[in-house]
Amino acid sequence: MLFDEAVKEKMEDFYDREEEINRLREGVLRGRRLILVLGVRRIGKSSLVKVTLNSIDVPFLYIDVRSVYRSHNYISSYALHYMVDDLISNLVASGKWSRIIDYIKHIRGISVYGVEVKN
Ligand SMILES: Nc1ncnc2c1ncn2[C@@H]1O[C@H](COP(=O)(O)OP(=O)(O)O)[C@@H](O)[C@H]1O
Ligand SMILES: [Mg+2]
Question: Each residue of 9-47: pLDDT tens digit?
């Protein structure tokens, strides 16, 4: 719904940001390590991020650290750890990472600079 006051999640509800969507999508698919989405409040930053990530086939975790800040007045690594842990559990349960998990299941061991761990 176009005039819904919530953060938009779907492409069809988000208008006139094709250029920004393409630039963000390009950055994510190229594996850029840092992407900044900057702008004044309520300009559509969160919507841009969600709509774009929902439109491409990559697993992602969306973390709004403001909720941690609001409840603790600071952002502790402990609170972040639990948030990420929770989100990963939900993502795994949703089946979105099933391909990665299937792949990991077939790994018999790893070797780093001669140090080897085998199952
Ligand atoms: N291009 C757009 N199309 C549709 N709705 C938009 C657009 N940009 C912003 N909005 C709406 O404006 C409000 C603020 O957007 P939001 O993504 O929360 O902004 P920000 O994260 O920059 O504060 C939300 O209701 C959102 O749905
Ligand atoms: Mg926002």
Answer: 999 999 999 999 999 999 999 999 999 999 999 999 999
Ligand nearest to the CA of 6: 1
Q: Ligand 1 centre from 18 Cα, in Å?
A: 14
Nearest to 83 by CA among 65, 70, 59, 95: 65
How far is CA 113 from each of CA 61, 106, 108, rounded to the nearest angstrom?
A: 31, 21, 17
Closest CA to 29 of 47, 45, 52: 52
* Residue 5 pLDDT: 86
Burial 4-25, CB ≥16 within 10 A → b, else e:
eeebbeeeeebeebeebbeebb
Helix (H) or strand (E) holding 85: helix 77-94
